[in-house]
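1st attempt posting a full record on here, be nice pls
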Amino acid sequence: MRKKLHLALALLLLPTGMMPVYGEEGKQMIHLSVHAAADPSLPCAEAVYEVFQDEKALLPAVNEKGEALIMKTDAKGEAQMELPSAFFLKMKTAGRGYYMDPQVIAVKKDLSLALWPIRFVFNTGERTAEMQLKQADGTMLPSRQAEAGQHYTAYEAAPDSYQSAKPLSVEVPLYRQEKNDPIILQTEEQKYGNAVINFLDGQTVIPGIGYQIYQDAQGTAKAEDVCGRDLIGVSETEKKTMMLVPGTYYLKITDVPSSFCMPSDMISFKVQAGEDTAVETELQKMAVHVHVLDISSGKEIAADVRCLQEEQQVQDGWQREKTYQIKAEPKDPGYFHLQPQTVSIPADADAPLDVIFKAVPFTIHVQGTDRETGAEVAMKYEIRSSSGDLLSRAQAGETVIFHEISCLPGYESSGDQQMVIPASSDVPQTYEISFPHDPYTMVHLKAAAGSLIALYEDEACTCPALDRHGMPAQTVLMEDEAVLEMPNGIYYAKQNEVSSGYFLNTDHYVLRCQRTISLDAELAFYNCKAGLEIISTVHGSGTPEIIYDIKENGRIIASLSSTSGDWISEGINAGHTYEVSVQKIQGQYVYQPAQSAVIEASSTLPSVEFSFDPYIDLMLRTEGRSTVKGALYLDAEQEEKALDIYGNPCEMLLSSQGASVKIAPGTYWFISEAVPHCYRTKKEIIVTEEAMQQNMQIEPASVKASIEIDNLGESSHTMELRDEDGNLIKTWKADEENKAIAAERLEAGKNYFVKDKDSGEETDFAMPSEEPSEKPIIKVETKEKKEDSLDQKEVPQALWLFGGAAALIAAAGGGLLMHHKNEKVS
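the predicted structure (as tokens):
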């Protein structure tokens, strides 16, 4: 019964459709044969049966991988599988041409099943036509391959004499019934005409033209012939005839040889019933026409044209989906060169392509001028090539030199003007070649010796000016004055460098050179001495003396004594870098390490700042040999540890030798870690600036208590002190003279109990986890002794009375030793 219950639970826990195949016992090889019901010699191929474990076909059988078991017949209509004899088969799909079988069939060794074939009768008018079926995806099937439960459209397979059966929609039932065996389709006759498709190049028929015929001009509804075939085709050299119902159709060309244009428009044609219609389409050869136009006038000009494909001259005509390079060059040299054009003829090109080249003209004007007035200066010049050869005229893409031969007296001759004529341009160009003839002015510059002064043409001082010799207008003043010879004009003077010991003058000055006003111009630059500011910020009380060292490249160049801030200029040079460090300070202070100071070339005041924070040497120690480990905190709650002047946590191990820490003034808490038999120390420490060193003693408090016994009466009581685990700590005799004892070497936060050995009563108590303000007092109330006599066996082993009194002696370390008074103690 238990096994059956477990099996039922296991089956219920399996997912739906995942029932297991039972064990190997009871299995046999099942041979399945499926044939036509009317003719057993006709096999039913591709019939699929599902395997179930129950006769209602609710529990599918699965293999070890959890896959559903199925049996599928082969081309002979046969299948086999090893199954238990208690299983069942149910048809999932029938093969083509047969109805489904709804039965659930019990498995047996040799199983022969018969299926009913799907039969049709296609009547049109007074005749029965041969039919074929069209599926939803457009494929055609003979009627004998129909599938049960599917939808088709029935067409006549081979119409003739301009007459065919109208197509008819048919739904094939899943199962055979008397009323649908055979399926009788009754339709009407319809007239049709023939369309003959041809594509021509002149009188020559062109093969290989792909096309599609539609019912509408938008190409959304595909047309079909009277047999249901889609009208998609490729032309051949022989005529191709299509059987179409009367109406207007639209031909769309989908593919043509690459040497022809691809028509984009629909070609419409009409079909008349009982007639043949010729549909002939003339295709256009693919071509490219090249035109070179003057961009200014729009007129076509003479040009040399070459058409290349892969660097080879085109010989065999133009083709779609190929790329060509077309080169054109105007015959008139007054035009820029034309950039070659790469022409890719698209696959859908529906007409020859026109390729337009726009020729851009250029003109060169050469003249001499007076730079001051702009007046024209008569001159003679010649054109030379870059190699020095004389040229009759300049051409696009060349480098030419215009050389002045002579000019009017009173002007300096201008240098050669070189011009690179661009090879191409998008717009017409007029180039002006001007030979300016300039007078010049003597410019006197004054500044600190060693200064570098330069002249510029723009106010931003980014474009260097040139002197009358064509050299950059700049000079280094060897003494305190220099002279530049400058062509007339407006310049901007700037000091770029200055000698050591001075700040750079960052201003720039306008300089007007005009020969008609003066032959000489003068400009002076003024420079300030360089220096360094040191700022000292001392926190706390007092103003100690501080001595600084100023170093350059590791060498001390100056020392400075300061109390708050000072300025030093001796030995400080602009453009240099110095290191400032503290050599000495009175008192105990924390301060920054050495700092770098860069003396900029400009007159900006540089400074370095040092901050000084006082600190105290705090010394903490304990008495005797005890050691205490702990740390300094900023608060009594231990939320944040204090840091020393180096940024390290103040963690300390205290002993009689003491432990020191360098720390800023303030209020701290020393909190120790746990020590056996001692409370954790928590002590407030106030560190002040009054002394450079501060000493303090930290001593952990012992954990101890006073135990007082009440209600003793006339008799004494034997008492025990034990911890919460029952370990004996102390035993004593309590009487009127010894009511209170001291309990020492206890543990903070631990539970204890006092036991009256005579009455058996126990008194529990717990020691504080932190040091109390006063020593704890434990009150214990006793009861009268039991009247029952005690024999020797009932007396606790720790206290035996042999007719005499017992004595308690505290041994070293806080333990207890009990013995008889007549015994000798060693």
